[in-house]
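ugh ok fine here u go
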Amino acid sequence: MTGNLKLDMKQLKEFLEFFNSVNEKCFFACIVNNYSRPLDDVEKACTDNCAVKMITVNQRLMNLYITNRRDKDNSS
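structure:
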């Protein structure tokens, strides 16, 4: 495997792990009726809000990490 392909595979793996984590956390937090296939309006709203919050938090954490890393690299 070339270096770029390894990096691409690592990034894909990290994305899928994050996606699965969001999916699982929001499912357990929001889905209360496992006996009905369609989501009701409350479950839909909950899963939408949950996913948006998780993605927003992840973006903020990544921005903080990048900023801290950049500051650390500039101070060296």
